[in-house]
Specification:
two-stranded antiparallel ribbon; five-stranded mixed β-sheet; 7 strands; 3 domains; alpha+beta; Heat Shock Protein 90; single chain
């Protein structure tokens, strides 16, 4: 079911917001550039006209001075005054015509930009419709495939379990028992992979289910540790939980937080050598409950402390034990709870992955 309190922001909404922000920046830059260009052009035209007026005034002043010396009159003759008036009208008419042409050119430029914007918007709408169709087809296909694969896996795991029980009861053919258990382990990994793929599709659609309720965190931590206790023992590792006294109740989805803890424990056990230790610690702060998973493995490289939470990133070069979705999904689940997840390199050796749930 969709997230109730903290609805996930869909990729579509993020894309729309990015497009809107980029468009506003582009519009602001374009408007600023056009306004600056127009301002410079207008100032050049104004300056040119002022200089032309000054040159004309100087020429007329010289003519008037010569006329005064020749005729003794302080003012230009009537014919000369009429001629100058006609010249002034002609100059003003030319300037008005030039201004009109300039305004028309600028209006045409604005109209051209608006037409290009409409064409771009139409192309974006068309591409979005195509993307929506492709996503709908993908989601429908994934739903069908995941349903059918899970049914087939349930059948396979069920029969593998029956074989294990019969062989264990008879006490014969231990190799057959081992083979049946390998089938069960491989089937369980395939089941988790299908769940991860479905979760990633839900994250992209903004519908990852997170149903929170107020509850103590200790039971879900103990369940996660119990789930991996057999695996840890079989690999010669120590797995334990350290819970602070008087842990407060917090709002969280127990199934989803269990999924996060299982992802973190699976990674910690996978990269911790025999004889090592994995510890789950839970402690409160003033604003949150902090979960941390410590291991004594080689440690996460410093340059990967942030990138390990991205999709499809694996623990090391050539490592094919997974497709790199677990930590990405864990990050999305924690963020869906309003919390934060991060990784650290422990002093000495080992890694520490922490996440918080707000109080």
């Amino acid at each position: 079911m969709p997230t109730s309190d903290h609805a996930s922001t869909s990729e579509r909404e993020q894309t729309d917001e990015s497009l809107r922000a980029e468009r506003e920046k582009a519009d602001a830059a374009l408007t600023e550039g056009v306004d600056a260009f127009d301002e410079v052009a207008d100032s050049v035209i104004t300056l040119a006209r002022q200089r032309a007026d000054e040159v004309l005034a100087l020429a007329r002043s010289k003519v008037d001075g010569q006329a005064r010396r020749a005729t003794g009159s302080a003012s230009p003759s009537a014919p000369l005054a009429r001629e100058r008036a006609r010249e002034n009208q002609a100059v003003q008419a030319e300037r008005d015509a030039a201004d009109l042409v300039l305004r028309d050119e600028r209006a045409e430029h604005v109209a051209l930009l608006a037409a290009e914007r409409r064409e771009t918007d139409a192309d974006l709408v068309q591409e979005r419709e195509r993307a929506d169709d492709a996503l709908a087809t993908r989601d429908e296909f994934l739903a069908i495939v995941s349903h059918d694969l899970r049914n087939l896996l349930n059948t396979m795991l069920g029969f593998a379990g029956l074989i294990s029980q019969e062989v264990a009861r008879d006490g014969t053919n231990p190799r057959l028992l081992g083979d049946a258990q390998r089938i069960q382990r491989s089937g369980a990994r395939m089941y988790r992979l299908i769940g991860d793929l479905v979760d990633v599709a839900s994250i992209h659609a903004g519908t990852l289910g997170v149903s929170r309720r107020l509850q103590p965190p200790a039971p879900v931590v103990q369940e996660a540790v119990d789930t991996f206790q057999g695996q840890a023992t079989g690999r010669g590792l120590t797995l334990r939980a350290e819970l602070a006294d008087s842990l407060p109740q917090v709002e969280f989805d127990a199934a989803r937080i269990l999924q996060v803890l299982c992802n973190l424990l699976s990674n910690a056990l996978k990269f911790t050598p025999r004889g090592g230790e994995v510890v789950v610690r839970v402690s409160p702060t003033a604003t949150a409950v902090v979960f941390q998973v410590d291991d004594t493995g080689p440690g996460i490289p410093v340059d990967q402390l942030q990138s390990i939470f991205e999709r499809y990133l694996q623990g090391g070069e050539g490592d094919r034990r997974g497709v790199g979705l677990g930590l990405y999904i864990s990050r999305c689940i924690v963020q869906g709870h309003g919390g934060h997840i991060w990784a650290e390199r422990r002093t000495g050796s080992g890694s520490r992955v922490c996440f918080t749930l707000p109080r």
